[in-house]
């Protein structure tokens, strides 16, 4: 259990650095910190998400779930947790998702600058054929036919190279958002190659999937994996 004087708040980003779990202020469940979002209070008394867990001041943790954040707002949980009147926008759940999307776009842009991303159907197909691709990226609004073809290749090649049959497939961004990240037009398909920047992109993508799909009572690991595979039938959420 957590060894904190106040179970709802941490002691700031520079303390308890070795902590790997926190308590969700909504569900009261202790979870790994990768399954939660830290919220802090600005000098003007506004509650904002601290996605990188580096902002100063004490922090309150909520499950990485749109439903949980919305419930925290509805229950007035931030005022209760921080024990004072704060400015909490009713749109906090939406604003948090927007920041998560922005963090994924930024991470993909960094991976591209590091040479760890290829885009375009033929280049992605080549990366899969050569066993270079570590994950597929499809625009959430991409055509089903091209998605199915590349997914089929990824499953076949993953098996041939002895990798997990659950080859990562990321569908959290629209074509417009992929264009923004990669600095080109009409991006529908991309692939990430090995490297630390691509790992950061995949980690942030999983957090966004978790936020969109997780419920309050269980972790979103399986949900994230299932969402990553949802492009097989193009019928699930466009996470």
From N to C, what is the helix and strand string?
Answer: EEEEEHHHEHEHEHEHH
Percent strand: 5-15%
What's the story with the biggest beta sheet? 4 strands, mixed
Strand numbers in spatial order across the main sheet: 6-9-7-8
Flag low-confidence runs: 216-239
Radius of gyration: 19 Å
How far is the N terminus from the C terminus?
33 Å
Count all strands and give the number: 9
Instruction: Please tally the helical runs, counting DSSP H or I stretches of 4 or more residues.
Output: 8
Mean pLDDT: 85
Kindly name the structural category. Answer: alpha+beta
Percent in helix: 40-55%
What spatial form do the alpha-carbon principal axes imply? elongated
Quick summary of this structure?
Helix content is 41%, strand content 14%.
Describe this structure in words.
With 239 residues, this protein is α+β, with helices and mostly antiparallel strands. Helix content is 41%, strand content 14%. It has 8 helices and 9 strands. A 4-stranded mixed β-sheet has the order 6-9-7-8, sandwiched between helices. The chain has a 3-stranded antiparallel β-sheet with strand order 4-3-5. Strands 1-2 form a two-stranded antiparallel sheet.
Task: Fill in the keyword field for this structure.
single chain, 239 residues, alpha+beta, four-stranded mixed β-sheet, three-stranded antiparallel β-sheet, 9 strands, 41% helix, disordered C terminus
């Amino acid at each position: 259990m957590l060894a904190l004087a106040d179970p709802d708040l941490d002691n700031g980003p520079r303390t308890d650095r070795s902590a790997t779990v926190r308590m969700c202020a909504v569900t009261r469940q202790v979870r790994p910190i990768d399954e939660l979002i830290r919220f802090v209070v600005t000098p003007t008394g506004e509650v904002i998400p601290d996605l990188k867990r580096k902002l100063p001041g004490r922090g309150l943790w909520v499950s990485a779930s749109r439903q949980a954040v919305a419930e925290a707002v509805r229950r007035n949980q931030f005022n209760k947790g921080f024990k004072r009147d704060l400015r909490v926008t009713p749109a906090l759940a939406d604003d948090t998702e927007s920041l998560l999307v922005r963090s994924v776009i930024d991470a993909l842009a960094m991976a591209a600058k590091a040479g760890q991303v290829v885009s375009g159907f033929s280049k992605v197909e080549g990366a899969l054929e050569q066993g270079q691709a570590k994950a597929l990226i499809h625009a959430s609004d991409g055509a089903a036919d091209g998605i199915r073809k590349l997914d089929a290749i990824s499953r076949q090649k993953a098996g041939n190279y002895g990798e997990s049959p659950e080859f990562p497939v990321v569908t959290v961004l629209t074509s417009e958002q992929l264009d923004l990240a990669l600095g080109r037009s009409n991006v529908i398909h991309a692939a990430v190659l090995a490297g630390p920047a691509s790992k950061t992109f995949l980690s942030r993508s999983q957090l966004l999937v978790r936020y969109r799909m997780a419920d309050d009572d269980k972790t979103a690991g399986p949900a994230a994996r299932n969402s990553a595979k949802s492009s097989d039938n193009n019928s699930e959420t466009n996470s």
